[in-house]
Structures are given as structure tokens and as C-alpha cells.
Design a protein that fits this description.
The chain is α/β, with parallel strands linked by helices. It contains 15 helices and 22 strands. Helix 5 packs parallel to helix 6, helix 7 packs across helix 8 and helix 12 runs parallel beside helix 14. The two termini are 47 Å apart.
């Protein structure tokens, strides 16, 4: 295990009796985590370097020359070049703590800082820097290795937040020991090996019943298949482009344990059986016994914009599962999902702590029937997961000329993607799922306002779409939508997503940055209010016991 005995001992005294709320056990709302990125505003980690670009991705601006790297991605020889990266990109200054950041490193060399990062002092193996906002009021910061001794190359860089936490409270950052009222003060600079997570991030995440790790795990467009290709705690960074980035399983499990939240794991589409076995084994041995593991094979296997959809079709065709290429892909997804479920069942010895999830499409009942019917997959499935989003068609989106018009179309019964019409599809899926003895849950959901083919915040209707997400009326729509979800037969709802900035490619975050005041975040307000007033209503949801499974029909009509 990568955590030491000392870490285990520290956890026992730090997290015991901490301020984590048990309310998430009866919450009806979960949350999708975000990718590890230098421009991410969730700021999950105390060590900001873990969010930096891999050095090679910073070419040609910061990395130059013929750099050679070690197994963990650290430059072991500059060869007269330099290796640089960006660890913060246009982050609202309010999202990051003020104060001096501690940069620690091993080896012999010289670091150089740029943009918002200003050097304050320097000593052996340790620099102190300060993050100064740009004229736009945001933080962009770079770090470069400009000198490094090849025989003892500069490595293991950490950029640690100022301050720390007090004993028994990892949910509140403090500036110094004076703010701990006599309790032990644990500075991030000293205890960074034990204190992984930003207290602001933990405070935001603690109210959610389930954490879906699809984005954080980095499986999107990731072609890894073997266990040795996975992200590891010792990797230089966990960020990068799609297909490269990914937070280690160890860190995701640790987060679920700290928050006492159930964990939803999404497995890579090319993962071999050994990968699945080792993954399940680690979760079984390290996820707290009271927590459930949701198991899902890949993400949106039906969605042609992702390589996994084409992989499903290729495999389904090769196995001659159906003469129709699309249907063959759906059936392979079903078949492989059940194979994965059975590996987890064997590792766990039962299904008591497992929720076996199959991913569907909100408006596609044929897909649901095909997946659940194929080789009686419904007998091994606990939940059908869909993504109920309300929005407007692209032609209608292009015609929007005001914020008022955005809200008008979202409630227009003639809009096929209005709240009312999407909830009608939810009801149909809930009724169908019930026939199979399977729960209906949402793996994602909420608003889906995007103007495709635009590339700026002001282009086309983007300013209206973004302002609609900041408008108090959005809170009303979210509450209406969630209430309708419950009435239609839906159960657990996983919102999309944890804080991220609104942009021309969508306003996905339920907050725009991790410390944004609640009164400025209408979607967050609605989700919290709904969860508070609608504690989880499905049988067996609110305790540490095994999940309640429904009786399976002896036979279900084919598609």
C-alpha cells in the first residue's frame, strides 16, 4: 500500500470525530467529479502540481529541447533544454487561498516561475512563492526546471497551499497554529503526505451521497487496457489531455473514505480481466466496509463521439452478436458489463455492497430492452443509469436573443427537450426498468445549454446561455426538474458536475469555482434544497446495510 503506517495512525486521530456530515447517507443527490486539469476550478488537492500539464504537453512555450524522462514523468536530463509546465490557468483568484505557497523538491537544480507565480524566497529543496492575480483578476502560473543535475535530477515537485488544518477537522483550512485554539496544527507544508485534499473541496463534496469518478479517473478517450498503464500516486502529474490524464484509484478511494460517500467507479472500455480483477480487489480491500461500490463499464458506450462506442461495435460485429452493427455494439456492451460484474461479485464474495450499473440513453427504450434482455443481463444488473438533460435543439438555440427566451424555450411543450418532455421519457424508462426488477438512476443530469460550433464566450447565444445558468430562475427549473424526476420514478440523481467555469462549450459546473458563495450558484442552491427536503426515498438507501434488490421477473418480453 502506498500509504504508510504513520499515515494510518494520523488518519485515526485526524478524521475521527471530524466535522464530516452523516447527512450524505440520506441524501438523494450525488455529484460527478471533474478531470484533473490546470484550468479546473474545483481545486481538489493541496498539492497544485498534481493539476499541472505533463511537461511534454507544454511545448513549445515552456518545454524546449530534447528532454528525457524517468518512469514517473520527471525530466532526468535537460540536454541543454528546459522543462516547464503550467499548474494554474485562468483560475478565479477567489478559488485559491491567499498567502505563501511552499514549493518542495528533491535533487539539485533551479526552478523558475512565471505569470502569477512570484518567487519570495529560496533555500535548498524549498522555494516560497506567492500567486499574484493578473489584471483580469485570475491566476495563471507556470513553473520551469531551467537547471538540473543529471546525477541527482530535480524531481518530486510539490506546490503546497498555505496554511493547514487543525486536529480532527480536515474540512476547514486555517492560516496558522493560532487559529486551532490549542488543538494540534497540521501544516500542509509538513503533512502533505497525509493531507491530500483541499479543505474547501471536502466541504463542498461532503453533502453528496455518491461520488461518480468517471471524469476524475480520466477514462474518456483513454485506450489503456492493462493494469500497469493505470495512473499511479507517484506520477509527476495526474493531469493532461484526454486519454492521458487520470487520478489514481488510490486517491479516489481515499476521497470516498474521507467523505464517507459511496463511490461510483467507471471502468475503461479496453480494460482486460486482470485490470478489472486488480481494480475490484483494491476497492474491496480499501473502501470502508460501510460504503457501497457502484460498478459501471465505460461511459456512454452508445455515443458515437467516443472511441468506446466504435470499440463496442467492432467487438460485437466480430462476435456476430447482431447483423445490425449498432445493435451488435449494444449487445457486446451488455455482455462485457455482466462479465465485469461477475468479477467484482467473486472478489466481494457477494453483491451486498455492490451496485451493478448499466448505462442507457434517456429517450431510447429500444436500447434499454436490448441491453437488459441480452443473455438475461437484467438478472445481474441493479440499476439502469440515464442522463436526463433539458435543453433546446441547436436550431432553436441559435435563435435565442435574450435570457428570457432561454427560459421560455426550456418550458415550451413544443420543445422536444423541454423539462416536461424529458420527464415523460424518464417515466417511460422508469416503468420499463421496473419490469426488469432494475432501479432507474441518473448518472448525469440537469441543464444542457450549449451552442455548438462557437468558440468564444460572446459568440452567438453564448452570453444568454451563460447568464441563464446564473439566473435565479435556473434554481426554480432545477427544483421543478428534480421533483419531476422523483415523481416519474427516478431514484438516485448524480448531478453534473462539481465546480467548473462556465464557457462557450457549456456551463456544466453547479458552481463556477470551489469557493463561490452559494447565493451566486442557483443550480447548487436547488440541488441542496431538494436533497434537504427530499431525503432518499427508495427502500434501503439510507443505512449501511446491503442494497435492497428487487425480485427479477422469470421472463421479460424481448425487444
Amino acid at each position: 500500500m502506498y500509504k504508510t503506517f504513520i499515515f494510518t495512525l494520523l488518519l485515526s486521530v485526524t478524521f475521527s470525530g471530524s466535522t464530516v456530515s452523516a447527512a450524505n447517507k440520506t441524501a438523494s443527490i450525488g455529484i460527478n467529479t471533474n478531470e484533473a486539469m490546470d484550468l479546473g476550478t474545483s481545486i481538489p488537492f493541496v498539492d497544485l502540481f498534481k493539476l499541472s500539464l505533463p511537461f511534454e504537453e507544454a511545448r513549445p512555450w515552456l518545454t524546449k529541447g530534447r528532454i528525457t524522462y524517468d518512469a514517473n514523468g520527471w525530466p532526468k536530463a535537460l540536454n541543454n533544454g528546459k522543462a516547464g509546465t503550467r499548474f494554474a490557468s485562468h483560475i478565479p483568484a477567489k478559488a485559491l487561498p491567499k498567502g505563501d505557497y511552499t514549493v518542495l523538491y528533491d535533487g539539485e537544480g533551479v526552478l523558475q516561475y512565471g505569470v502569477s507565480a512570484k518567487l519570495v524566497s529560496r533555500s535548498k529543496g524549498k522555494d516560497i512563492i506567492r500567486l499574484v492575480p493578473t489584471k483580469k483578476g485570475d491566476i495563471s502560473a507556470t513553473i520551469s526546471i531551467v537547471k538540473s543535475d543529471p546525477s541527482n535530477y530535480l524531481r518530486n515537485i510539490k506546490i503546497l497551499m498555505p496554511g493547514g488544518v487543525c486536529h480532527r477537522n480536515v474540512f476547514k483550512r486555517v492560516n496558522n497554529a493560532n487559529e486551532c485554539g490549542g488543538k494540534q496544527y497540521l501544516s500542509f507544508a509538513k503533512y502533505h503526505k497525509e493531507l491530500t485534499f483541499n479543505p474547501d473541496y471536502l466541504t463542498f463534496m461532503k453533502d453528496f451521497k455518491v461520488l461518480r469518478f468517471m471524469n476524475m479517473s480520466g477514462i474518456t478517450r483513454n485506450l489503456m487496457s492493462s493494469w500497469n498503464e493505470r495512473a499511479k500516486p507517484e506520477d509527476a502529474t495526474w493531469a493532461g489531455v484526454e486519454g492521458v490524464r487520470g487520478v489514481p484509484l488510490e486517491i479516489m478511494v481515499e476521497l470516498a473514505n474521507v467523505l464517507k460517500s459511496d463511490a461510483w467507479f467507471t471502468l475503461p472500455h479496453k480494460a482486460d480481466n486482470y485490470f478489472i480483477h486488480k481494480y475490484a480487489q483494491y476497492v474491496h480491500e480499501n473502501l470502508k466496509p460501510g460504503l457501497k461500490a457502484y460498478v459501471e463499464y465505460t461511459n456512454e458506450a452508445w455515443n458515437g463521439i467516443f472511441p468506446q462506442a466504435h470499440y463496442m461495435k467492432d467487438k460485437g460485429e466480430a462476435m456476430r452478436l447482431d447483423a445490425n452493427r449498432d445493435y451488435a455494439g449494444y449487445k457486446f456492451y451488455s455482455k462485457r458489463s455482466v462479465e465485469i460484474f461477475k468479477i467484482w461479485e467473486k472478489i466481494y464474495g457477494s453483491t451486498d455492497r455492490l451496485v451493478r450499473v448499466m448505462g442507457g440513453m434517456t429517450g431510447n427504450l429500444r436500447l434499454t430492452k436490448m441491453m437488459l434482455n441480452h443473455q438475461e443481463a437484467y438478472l445481474h444488473t441493479d440499476a439502469l443509469a440515464i442522463a436526463p438533460y433539458f435543453y433546446a435543439s441547436q436550431p432553436d438555440t441559435k435563435r435565442l436573443r435574450s435570457v428570457d427566451s432561454v427560459f421560455k424555450i426550456l418550458e415550451d411543450p413544443k420543445n422536444p427537450y423541454s423539462i416536461k418532455n424529458i420527464l415523460s421519457s424518464v417515466k417511460n424508462q422508469a416503468e420499463l426498468s421496473k419490469r426488469y426488477g432494475v432501479d432507474l438512476v441518473a448518472y448525469e443530469g440537469g441543464q444542457h445549454l450549449v451552442a455548438y460550433k462557437t468558440h468564444t464566450m460572446t459568440e452567438g447565444p453564448n452570453r444568454y446561455l451563460i447568464e441563464a445558468n446564473r439566473d435565479p430562475r435556473m434554481a426554480q427549473l432545477y427544483y421543478q426538474f428534480l421533483r419531476g424526476w422523483k415523481q416519474a420514478g427516478g431514484k438516485l440523481f448524480i448531478a453534473f458536475s462539481a465546480p467548473r467555469q462556465h464557457s462557450w462549450f457549456g456551463s456544466w459546473g453547479i458552481k463556477e469555482y470551489i469557493t463561490q458563495p452559494s447565493h451566486e450558484a442557483p443550480k447548487y442552491q436547488a440541488l441542496m434544497q431538494f436533497s434537504k427536503l427530499n431525503r432518499c426515498w427508495w427502500k434501503g438507501c439510507s443505512n449501511y446495510g446491503p442494497i435492497v434488490r428487487h425480485d427479477k421477473p422469470i421472463q421479460v418480453a424481448s425487444q
